[in-house]
Amino acid sequence: MKRILKNNNSEILTNKWVYPKDAQKIRSVLETEQDGYCAYTEAKISATYSVDIEHFNPNLININNDSYTNWFAVSHKWNNKKSDKWAKYQPILHPTDEHLEIRVRYEIETGTYVCNSDDSSANNLIELLDLNNIGLINDRQNKIELIKDLFSESGVESFEKWLSHPKSKHDLIEFRRAIETVFNIQL
Predict the structure, then answer these.
(1) Taking each helix axis from N to C terminus, what angle separates 176-183 and 134-154, rounded to the nearest 10 degrees?
(2) What is the predicted pLDDT for the residue at 86?
(3) Are 174 and 42 spatial neighbours (Cβ–Cβ below 8 Å)?
(4) Percent composition of the chain: helix, strand, coil (DSSP 3-state, to 5)
(5) Residue 176 has what pLDDT?
(6) What is the DSSP code string of 16-60?
(7) Which of 40, 11, 37 is nearest to 25 (CA)?
(8) Is residue 175 part of a domain?
(9) pLDDT at 104 over 90
(10) For range 7-20, the mean pLDDT
């Protein structure tokens, strides 16, 4: 999981949009700000992908403290996975935490997200969001293998150059955190 960066100049903030009244506009802007990726799974959002405005802390829904910092564009499936388990996974690391990518690490060998054994907030985030769901692990690993195969067949000497090549299949880049770790690059 990549840390989600919130924009202090977001259109959501400048227009003072509120949920649920402005939900469609909010969801559209969140998708754009997240570069078209689900905040939790890092799967690419497409026309066939059901996306929700996720209220990370569900206790804030429809109260004054529910705001832009609590909203993320996420897969409907992953939104539903956490809907009734919030209280069980406290304390929890927030997806915007500046240390998220240090505390929640992608392990290449297993395709899983791990954290230090004494970091309950990070572990609770991994567990609540089901980041190590076997289907998600397989999807990440399969995508990485596909990219490795395409890269090796391309004849381009570096992954960065391959990404900038017009035929790179850049649209295949999902699961950015896993790819960054495997290929030791920044996307």
Answers:
(1) 50
(2) 95
(3) yes
(4) 45, 10, 45
(5) 83
(6) T--TTTTHHHHHHHHHHHTTTB-TTT-PBP-TTS-EEEEESSGGG
(7) 11
(8) yes
(9) yes
(10) 97
The two tokens of residue 10 are: 């977001």
CB atoms within 10 A of CB 167: 9
187/181 Cα distance (integer angstroms): 10
pLDDT in the model for residue 168: 58
Q: Record the tokens describing residue 175, joined without a space.
A: 């699961």
The number of distinct structural domains making up the chain is 1
Joined tokens for residue 9: 């100049």
| pLDDT confidence bin for 48, thresholds 50/70/90 | confident
Q: Is the pLDDT of residue 99 over 70?
A: yes
Domain that holds residue 163: 134-183
